[in-house]
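Cont'd.
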Amino acid sequence: MLIVVNTISSLVHLFSVKYMEGDAKYSRYYAHLGLFTFSMIGLVLTNNILLMYVFWELVGISSYLLIGFWYENKAPQEAAKKAFIVNRVGDVGFFLGIMIIFLTLGTFNFSEIFAGVAAGKLSGGLLTVTGILLFCGAIGKSAQFPLHVWLPDAMEGPTPVSALIHAATMVAAGVYLTARIFIMLSADALTVVVYIGLITSFISATIALTQNDIKRVLAYSTISQLGYMIMAIGIGAYSYGIFHLVTHAFFKACLFLTAGSVIYGMHHVQDINEMGGLRKKMPITFFTFLMATLAISGVPFTSGFLSKDSILAATLVFADVNGGINYIVPFFAFLTAGLTAFYMFRLLIKTFLGEPKNGEKFDHVHESPFSMTLPLIILAVMSFFAFFSFNPFGAESGWFLEMVKAPESLLVGTQGAIYHIIERAEYQELTHHFHYLAMILSLVIAGLGILVAYAFYYWKKVDVEKLTEKIYPLYKFSLNKWYFDELYDKTIISGTMMLSNISRWIDNNIVDGFVNGSAFITKMTSEGSGKFDNYFVDGLVNFVGGLVAFFGLIFRKFQTGRIQTYVAFLVFGIILLYFIFRVM
Amino acid sequence: MAAYTLSILIFFPIVFSIPIFFFNKEKTTLIKTYALIISLITFIISVYIFFIFNPDSGEYAFVERRVWIPLLNSYYQVGIDGISLLLILLTTFIIPLSILASFNTIKNRTKEFYFLILLLEGSLIGVFCATDLLLFYFFWEFILIPMYFLIGIWGSDDRVYATVKFFIYTMTGSVLLLIGIIWLGFLCIPYVGFFSLDLTKLITVTSSLPMDKQIYLFILFTLGFLIKVPLFPFHTWLPDAHVQAPTAGSVILASLLLKMGTYGLIRFSFELFPAAFIKLTPIIAVLAVVGIIYGALLSIVQKDMKKLVAYSSVSHLGFVVLGIFALTQESLQGSVLQMVNHGLSTGALFLIVGMLYERRHTKEISEFGGLMKVMPVFSAIFLIVCLSSIGLPGLNGFVGEFLILVGAFNAPNLHSYSYTIFATTAVILSAVYLLWLFQRVMTGPIENEKNKDLKDVSKLELCTLIPILIFIVWIGVQPNTFLKISENSVKKVLLIYDSAKQRINNNDAVPK
């Protein structure tokens, strides 16, 4: 994994030298790219799940920065935000998983965690839940269903970034995580892993059939291949999953960089309906693209053939051992392989073969400079079988699979049938047994896919437009990516916004209403008591005062200040009293 | 020196705020520089205390005790432990920055402004030092006065409503607190022997009070603190106060004043009434979780940047309260650290909003857009601060949030995982509202003509932001520098929890 990250990262750095030339934020671009590479290496090297989470988030933020690199436009920003938030949803699961681990096992260290699980300190339902929660992180990062929606939009970023982050390295981090925790995943958790992978790979393959943006086709194909890897790990074909991760990293990086070269040559056109006939103008780009396409379609003598074929064989073993409903796993896996071959050749034919659709643009097309084609050539050569195994038809004896052996699950004895026999002779034998069947089947299917693609788009034996009209609802469904964005938009996003607006209403009218209401009541009471005070209390006071004044008014008449008046009153008073007492 | 250390720290800014009045009104530069120097010296004193503070003991350090009001047996009694020290450091760190931020923004009545800020600083430190309830209440109330004027005089257009709301709301809380303090003093007379409000004495006797009394007292104290925090549903004064306050006011309010509430929860609500605290935990924990999500949801739909940040404070402080009520070593230390983190991140966000306001005289999000092109350095700082608030690993917010969530996850005091699981959703929501804010303000094409010639950060503005950034990264990468200060103090606090739980269990076991 480290080798993959470093190789591709340096090639992408080299490629970017020319591709990003002239951009005003050249230095910033490299700063972000460096941050990404740093965090990715950290993620791979750490043996501590908390640190892994730290780097995991840092990778997320550098991806956010790089997707939104062209910040003057709205679309990249939207895409960047979407990527970060969708990833966060998965990360919450990852985070909760880490918490359960820490609280039950008291450690973040991987080997101590595994030792704890092996000792049975974390087991049963809780272990399954933990496994699934951790896997949620992988669902987000590796763009698995139902959180895959961010990856196609992430193609708004510069193309070398798409090659590095959104094809080869970062998205593989989810697969890496799943592989890392593989030995502590319970059978139930693994079943979830298998079906998530399967659903993802199938859905995105069907979407890739109808997309017209060269990078979007590749994006969906990436999701589909990631689904393959996840599924491979889930069915116990651990080493094949990792193997596919590595081979895929090289040929998908190659595909993205060739796409970048095409876009560079076409002066930033990405619609494949505008292209065609580019083979003559861009021979190196074409051949490298062809090599990578052959690899991803699983044609013999390529690395993709080796890894994909092994996975397909493993799906057959899985179905054979577990039986029943599990036969849908190989069925859809093979179907997806066929679809992959079809859409990749559709892309190849529409881009490089046939007549140029847009003459004016075509005239200005030129081959990319050497610093861009060199990484392409290196990556294309890496898609060749010999790098991984000298036997073009089987990877078993190759150095890679010798190195990456599936570790034995810690939960031996509690697992489903398939996980019992991994790493035993029986499993080897079965794999071997199904290997030839898988090889033949996959060859036939891939060949069929390629043939159909040629028939549709090169020889034009079948009128594609008529066919499209006939199955219009299906076509529309695929073109609109199964309406996932619309669905999320209508449910989750609108739901959150509605909830927010309701909260705002509550806050303004009820919570604050209560505050203002009580203030209002207090004010009314004060006013009331003010009135009471003015009219009643004060009225009473005034009344008393008035009364006193009134009497004062009367009595003032007597207070003349003349002594004779007082003497007269005195005499009158004495006479009055005299009579009163006499009467009594 | 040692005997007076805390008093020097408290009264240095207060005493030296008075000479400001003798300065010539016209010489604003002199006034500003003077205030800055005073606050910097205060910061240096606090750093000195940080270095001589011994984090191993967990006991109150630098204790100082002298008779204050003999009639009430009230003492001027101060002392700090690790928890208070962190908040004091935060205070002395943020105040110089908010003074710096006011250099160009406060143009009228500069003398009064800087006088009030220094006064505020002294009383804030006093709040975090006081170990006598009356003294605590004294500082607690005293803070309202400068804050009232800060918003009322230098605020924006609708400041009267906001000031009155702020004042009355928090005053209500304070009155409840005062009633609680006096009642507690009287109730404890039989146990202490005389009327006393000495925290260290009261802690030892409150458990002997009848349970119902403890609960009433707890409610009185806690309501007062929760209004200050503010916890849902007592938060509506906060957005209004923030929107109207000047930048420095918002920064001080968010970074420091709110922490008085959370600090009070630990120091008084819990230490005095642990049993009632345990009994009423479910109610408050639910309110905290509701506040976390509710604040985050409200942030999403705000149109005013300051309101958005204010509601995000409600959400973040919900985390702090949850951590406090979870009562585990991790969660409590996380809460203390998160108080500091929130002070740094939200303080920085308010500074940033203030800088935008200075340039455009509006805080409406829709007025901006595409600023990254004209203000690249500013945008980088803005993004880092947003990410720190979101809780990106490697920056400070993550450490606090993580500790709180891990600590709360199976905290015995919460009895349930669900609090944490619900709280974790805010991790997604905080990314939504902050990244969306960033996107709408900083990225995209410049659509508003007025934004075309905005200047990037000035040197002065850099001086206010860079120190915060340093700590954002420092705490994110090496949190232990700060965690180890509070470690033993938190341990000591938790001892109270253990013994209180023991008592509750014993009471339940013995039928009455």
